[in-house]
Amino acid sequence: MVAFSCCTYDGGRKEKIEMENARERSWRGKFHRPGRVINPEANRRDGKCPLTPLEVR
To answer: Where is this region: Disordered (predicted)?
Structure first.
C-alpha cells in the first residue's frame, strides 16, 4: 500500500529505490509515464499517505 501511495518517508535513498522497484514490478511503467508528475509532499499534505508510527501518537 505504501509503495503505491507514492509517499516518501525517512528511509533514505535505499528505501526510495526499494519503493520504486516495488511500484515498477506491479505496475510496469505507470509511475514513469511521460508527463506524469509525482509529488510526494503534495500527497502527504492532502492526506493521501499512510501515517508513520510517529504521526499515530
So the answer is: 33-57
Specify whether the backbone of 8 is left (phi greater than 0), alpha (psi in -120 to 50) or beta.
beta
- Give Cα separations from 34 to 27, 29, 40 (angstroms): 15, 10, 18
Give the ranges where the chain is alpha helix by DSSP (H): 12-27, 40-45, 53-56
d(C-alpha 22, C-alpha 6), whole Å: 11
Q: What is the pLDDT of residue 52?
A: 77
pTM: 0.53
Nearest residue to 10 via CA among 55, 57, 52, 56: 52
Single-letter amino acid code for the residue at 6: C
